[in-house]
Amino acid sequence: MNRRIAFWLTIMLLTGRALFAVDPLGSYIDWRFHPPQLQIRDIQGLNKRIVDGKLHLHIREFLELVLQNATDIQLTRLDVLTAANDILSSHAPFDPQLELDFTALRSVSPLSFFTLGGIGSSSGTGSIAPPGTGTGSGSAVPGGSQVILPTTISSLSQSSQAQFTELLPTGQTINATFTTSRSSGDDFLYPALFGSLNVSVTQHLLQGRTNLQAKGPLQVARTELLITSERSEEAIASSIALAAHQYWNAIELRDTIRVQEQSVDLARRSYDRDKKALDLGALAKLDIFQSETQVAERNRDLIASRFQYKSSLDAMRHLIGADLTPTLRATEIVLEDQAAALPDRSSVLPFEQALVKALEARPQARAAQQQTNVDALNIRVARDSLLPRLDVSVQGGATGPGFNQMASQTANPYPGLGSTLGQVLAFDYPSYGFAATLNFPFRNSTARAALSNSVVNRVHDQYLQRQTQQGITNDVRQALNSLDLANASIEAAIRACDLARQNVSAEQQKYELGTITAFEVLDSQTRLASAESALLAAYVSYQQAYIDYQRATWMLLDGLGMVVETPRVH
Length: 570
Known about the structure:
Blueprint: H1 2-21, H2 24-33, E1 50-51, E2 54-57, H3 59-69, H4 71-90, E3 97-111, E4 114-116, E5 123-127, E6 135-139, E7 146-148, E8 151-167, E9 173-185, E10 192-204, H5 212-280, H6 288-319, H7 326-330, E11 332-335, H8 351-361, H9 363-385, E12 389-400, H10 417-425, E13 430-439, H11 445-513, H12 518-552
Parallel strand pairs: 2-11
Antiparallel strand pairs: 1-2, 3-8, 4-7, 5-6, 8-9, 9-10, 10-12, 12-13
């Protein structure tokens, strides 16, 4: 009795995790009939920003819409889900397996005939009795022979098997097999039933002792999920920064149109004055063409800028998903920001402080570090593969039936299913033992190559990590340099615009006094338009440099509510 209790307690402890800690049947039904659902996201946040039929946008609102609705960003988010599924796939070696088999075979075979020698004949009667008993009588007919003609024997064989296998996280492999077989037919007085139970537990003592071969891919998949999440954040931030650049480019085109409209107005006023002078005879007819040409050329440039601005708005409309319905496509977009409204310079850190912040906050740096951790794990797995393989297994089991004691003449020597199960589970006829297997590879070329490749990959990724750090350093330095350049350009452009305006006024007065020709007046107007365009470009360059600075120091997404959804996978 103690032997039976100890055996079943051991079985319960070994298989308890698979049978009680998880619900394999419920999990299977849930995944089979209720698989995970993933739906495409609807466009969000547009309707509440439409006022009087126009979509009014500031830079932060625009970036929020891009984050919510841009198709490439939504595609990037899906990469994290794919990486999470890789973790689920890496659990496959630890999945418990239950296999049920049933086989039935009906066979009919001929019985060999035989002849009884002698002269005569016989007849008689008899009855079938259990082994060891029987009665009968008969008579022989002299001079005759009796031939037993061939007959057939029909038999039925049925076998069932249930096998359970699981690899535990601690490294043991459990295998339990229960088999029953039943035979019946003409050559069996009673149906024969046989059952057996075999349980084995195998443990690796050298290679695979810590189960690193099976747990390694799972740990790698978990780390790859973190890497994918970090890289997804980096890719989304790049998309947001690019969208911000597009926004300020559109602002520049919008304000360029305003500058060109002013230039066209100045040219038109000059042309009107020249036309009046021509009508009064104070201007030669050939001199009117110069001012008229300027009006036509500036109108041409204005038309081109308007179409460029429209194309820029269409590109922005595409980013925020405002091109998916006729109503949204027809909605006018109004940009509310002014390029001259510069962000506070006090929020810009000195180079070394900005660099420290960037190296700590950038997901790209964390992803590079995580990749070196993967390489270190792969090296451990490869080194484990070089060890000899020593496996020890213990096994035990029981069989049934042993035939019943033939206590009476009518006893059935074959017990039924209940008796068979009782004998197996009670261990009336036990078996037990152990086995040890040693596999010593004198030249494991595959493992050696894997170890060498893992070492090379680690050094390769360490160089990539250094390259990433250098790239972040360069991003911060270039962003600060661009800010300084834009700031200096603004100061110079403001001075140039003031002088250009004064020059236009002075040239206009000279022209009215007749000391210069219309060419000098028109040329001063052109210079003024160029100076105003340069100032506008300097403002936009500062805005874009500030975006790059926020991107480099990982402050661009602050306040946008960006969350890369990382599924929890055990």
